[in-house]
Amino acid sequence: MNELTEIDGRARRASERRESRRAYILDTALKVFARSGYHQTRISDIIEAAGIARGTFYLYFESKSAIFLELLDELVVELRKHIVGVEQGPGAAPVEVQLTTTVTRILETVESKRTLTTILMREAVGLDEVVDKKLQEFYGNLHGYIVLALVEGQNMGIVRALDTDIVASCILGTVKHVMERYATLDPGAAVDVERVGGALLDFNLRGVLQT
Amino acid sequence: MNELTEIDGRARRASERRESRRAYILDTALKVFARSGYHQTRISDIIEAAGIARGTFYLYFESKSAIFLELLDELVVELRKHIVGVEQGPGAAPVEVQLTTTVTRILETVESKRTLTTILMREAVGLDEVVDKKLQEFYGNLHGYIVLALVEGQNMGIVRALDTDIVASCILGTVKHVMERYATLDPGAAVDVERVGGALLDFNLRGVLQT
Amino acid sequence: MNELTEIDGRARRASERRESRRAYILDTALKVFARSGYHQTRISDIIEAAGIARGTFYLYFESKSAIFLELLDELVVELRKHIVGVEQGPGAAPVEVQLTTTVTRILETVESKRTLTTILMREAVGLDEVVDKKLQEFYGNLHGYIVLALVEGQNMGIVRALDTDIVASCILGTVKHVMERYATLDPGAAVDVERVGGALLDFNLRGVLQT
Amino acid sequence: MNELTEIDGRARRASERRESRRAYILDTALKVFARSGYHQTRISDIIEAAGIARGTFYLYFESKSAIFLELLDELVVELRKHIVGVEQGPGAAPVEVQLTTTVTRILETVESKRTLTTILMREAVGLDEVVDKKLQEFYGNLHGYIVLALVEGQNMGIVRALDTDIVASCILGTVKHVMERYATLDPGAAVDVERVGGALLDFNLRGVLQT
DNA sequence: TATGAATGAGGGTTCATTCAT
DNA sequence: TATGAATGAACCCTCATTCAT
After folding, report:
1. Cβ distance C177 to D165 under 8 Å?
2. Of A19, A115, B157, D81, which is the most buried if we count CB atoms within 10 A?
3. What is the Cα–Cα distance from D208 to D164, expressed in whole angstroms?
4. Is the Cβ pair B177, A181 closer than 8 Å?
5. Would you state the pLDDT for residue C89?
6. Residue-level pLDDT at D106
7. 0.70 exceeded by the pTM?
8. What are phi and psi of D209, to 5 degrees?
9. B35-79 confidence digits (pLDDT tens)
10. Is B65 part of the contact surface with chain A (CB cutoff 8 Å)?
């Protein structure tokens, strides 16, 4: 092992250490934000919970809003992952199946990241122009996906004649509110994703499918 | 006109003046909150917009959070007024009609109080325990009303077998999200309440009625 | 009764009314100051207790400190009245008798104006340069009187050789502290002026008289 | 020197630095309070005099009243130290000697901490319930000590028959007033502790001893 | 004279961020 | 990289006093 490799190794280990430290602070902040809300949370709360010094926080994150934004991004990315499945075109699965899958995945994500979702549901709006824009974009994308799926369904003769814009809002609304209700439950409470997801889907499909 | 009457007259005029002044400040605060959001709004912004002195504000309102809470209450009261129509019992109108009326009224309220609704939708959560509790209670009541209406509908054979709890969440979700979308539009933009309300209702009724 | 007399009568009645109103407010302020202390007392407390309007207060008194100063003056004048009896010269009563009379009178004043004295003892220092100067002057005068009396007593061969300055401070100190202790008792508690005054005098006379 | 020692060294130096900084602010505040009085002193005055930032003050002290209370405590502790010498029992020194020592020590403390005493004498009453209680307790303790000493003296046949309660008040009064007079002198003025203490003691002993 | 709404200077405290060590 | 003392802008609220009616 020559010197360069050694240096690379050192650098790599340092970088890994840095990443894990960063992740640890991020995770700690997540818990604190979820417990107290964005505005009630002070940097002091986070560094105290993480057991780090004041200055250390700023070595890893630019500001209070930056770390919050990052947590938000994380969830949005996570949720988006489970939604991109909605596709159109001849080879795609039928809307019904796509929706079923999507809804189940979303609820599973919510269930597994309840803390993050709580924040998204309770705090993410009205904080900051950047945050707001990001959320608008996220919901706008979702809305667009749903509209597309509905139009596609109509073309395929599965979905009835309806106002796609408003109905897309309705569907998004059902998902959001159900998410919100279950996200704000006690952390320990068990949620029957199957049952909730089933009822949610059933409701929405009845609203859109041909009779 | 004797002295007493005169005094009464003075007192009445004073009281009226006070009320109108209060209403004026409340209205000004509403606009400022709607424009900048609760946390971004400083008392200075409100008194500057209202053209009053610092102390004057505190002559009419106890604190920043108090005036905000009052605005919130105003909207909740307004919305509640249009919702108490949901009734059960032999003499009551059918669920379908009741829901139609309710939804139309809610959307009309939102349309006429768009600024207030914006605040409710964007800011009202996570500010304060008092505010939070008030909102929880409000939404809890709504949820309860909807569940009752569904059960009643089931008894009357109009509503299909469904998970009333989750479906109530779905319905509430559709209304909330549609409200939110239309409340956050440009203040000038016209909203076709008929069309939106019609589609919203149609969607929800299909979700709940017997096929 | 001619017109002028009538006008004089009116003016006199008006002036009397003004004086009695003033006295009433002064008395109310006294109680409030005694209850809450100078700094804790707000103009609002006084006008509320007196049942008058904000502006009315300023028709009778220039400011918060002005009304307080006036109350202080009242007590100082009252106390001074009972102290001017200390005289020197061939015809004057012996120091012993003069002191006895003075001390008894002071204690009686304190007893009858306990509220005022409480204020003097608890609040009068460090408020204001004017107040401070007034008090310094008052105590300075007292100190001077006592020194004179001691010197006179020495000339008459009644008072022993002593440091008149320091002993005068001692005497003043005994009176002040005893006043303070009895002034700050519950307003209802009875004080045996005879007994207290007797012991106080006895102590001081033993300190100064020839053995 | 190993790493741990080094860390300990750092921590110790940091702690020392913190303590000295704290002491410096405390001392600065003392001067400002003494110059302007509690109510006239603003936090701005203290931080300006200390040359520190606004927030720095709150890093070391909780509030304006907290720092004041601490100064007060300091003096009370100091004074108390010199008073606990009054003892009863067969082996104890005679009351006369104990009083002499005590009074001299108190006056020396006052002389060495004239600024603090000024505050105690001029400002400490009527500020705050906590402060008031503390002072009442302090003076109450002193009063108790003196009563005990008198009773003990009576048992030993040194002290004459007298009203111990009132005479204790007298003694306390002489000490307080003499303290006050010398504390409020110009800071530069020299005080002949011997002479003042001697006269004070002489006066009080004559008041209490058997003739 | 009486009223009480209006004023606005002023002060205490918080907390995100910086920086010397 | 890690620390935590220091910073100071920001902001809410109080209350003595004024003034139009």
Report:
1. no
2. A115
3. 9
4. no
5. 62
6. 78
7. yes
8. -75, 160
9. 888 888 999 999 999 999 999 999 999 999 899 889 888 888 887
10. no
Assigned CATH for D68-208: 1.10.357.10
Q: Tell me the per-residue pLDDT of A104-152, one tens digit each, with 9 for 90 and over.
A: 887 788 777 877 777 777 665 666 677 777 778 888 888 888 888 888 8
**Residue-wise DSSP of B109-145:** HHHHTHHHHHHHHHHSSSS-HHHHHHHHHHHHHHHHH
CB C33 within 8 A of CB C41: yes
Rounded CA-CA distance C78/C119 in Å is 14
Structure tokens belonging to residue A147: 């509209």
Tell me if residue A159 falls in helix, strand or coil.
Answer: strand
Contact B126 A127 (CB under 8 A): no
Mutate which: D171, D203, D208, D209, vs C, most C CBs within 10 A: D203
Which of D24, D17, D18, D29 has its CA nearest to residue D72? Answer: D29
CA dist., res. D78 & res. D72, Å (int): 10
Taking the CA of residue B56 and the C1' sugar atom of nucleotide E3, their distance in angstroms comes to 17
- The topology (CATH level 3) of C1-61 is Arc Repressor Mutant, subunit A (1.10.10)
Strand partners, C159: C209
Cβ–Cβ of B170/A163 closer than 8 Å? Answer: no
CB B174 within 8 A of CB A166: no
Query: What is the per-residue pLDDT across A11-42, written as a single tens digit (0 to 9) for each?
Result: 888 888 999 999 999 999 999 998 888 888 99
Q: How far is B106 from chain A (nearest CA, A)?
A: 15
- A39/B169 touch (CB, cutoff 8 Å), yes or no: no
d(CA A206, CA B167): 12
Out of D127, D174, D206, the one facing C173 most closely (by C-beta) is: D174
Q: What are phi and psi of D159, to 5 degrees?
A: -95, 140
Domain ranges of chain B: 1-61, 69-208
Which candidate from B123, B125, B199 shows the least CB-CB separation from A167?
B199
Segment (H or E) for A89 = none
Domain A65-208 listed as CATH 1.10.357.10: yes
Counting CB pairs under 8 A, whether chains C and B reach 3 or more, is no
- Tell me if C38 sits within 8 A of D126, measured CB to CB: yes
Comparing CB atoms, the residue among C170, C203, C206 nearest residue D178 is C170
| CATH for the C69-208 domain, from 1.10.357.10, 1.20.58.340, 3.40.50.150, 2.40.50.140 | 1.10.357.10
Report the length, in residues, of chain A. Answer: 211
- C-alpha B132, offset from chain centre: 15
SS3 C163: coil
SS3 at position B191: coil
Nearest nucleotide, C1' to the C-alpha of A56? F2
Q: Quickly state the pLDDT bin for C92 (edges 50, 70, 90).
A: low
pLDDT classification of B86: cutoffs 50, 70, 90: low
Mean pLDDT of D106-128: 73
Is chain B adjacent to chain A, meaning 3+ CB pairs within 8 angstroms? yes
Distance measured from the CA of protein residue B44 to the C1' of nucleotide F11, in angstroms: 9
DSSP one-letter string for B19-75: HHHHHHHHHHHHHHHHHH-TTT--HHHHHHHHT--HHHHHHH-S-HHHHHHHHHHHH
Q: What is the DSSP letter of D38?
A: T
